[in-house]
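Q: Please design a sequence for this.
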């Protein structure tokens, strides 16, 4: 075995690192939203909800998209080499 790392393994590690940095930043953004938005309410689909839930839902969609993109990349990588 050589001491050099496989280039594909390095690419995967780099992508994993980027993913976890993105998740951390989404978490920081969610905390900032939670503590900075006021106690106001908004009418959404006929229901009163706290105003801070609206941007949190938007951030949640970006988290979902990021997770799905990572999983799709894993599937592509596992089936691409066979």
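A: Design:
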């Amino acid at each position: 075995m050589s001491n050099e790392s496989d280039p594909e393994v390095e690419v995967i590690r780099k992508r994993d690192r980027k993913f976890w940095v993105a998740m951390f930043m989404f978490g920081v953004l969610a905390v900032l939203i939670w503590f900075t938005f006021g106690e106001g309410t908004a009418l959404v689909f006929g229901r009163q909800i706290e105003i801070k839930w609206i941007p949190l839902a938007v951030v949640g969609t970006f988290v979902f998209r990021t997770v799905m993109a990572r999983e799709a990349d894993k599937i592509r990588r596992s089936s691409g080499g066979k």
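Q: Thanks. Anything notable?
A: The first strand starts at residue 41 and ends at 44. The mean pLDDT is 88.
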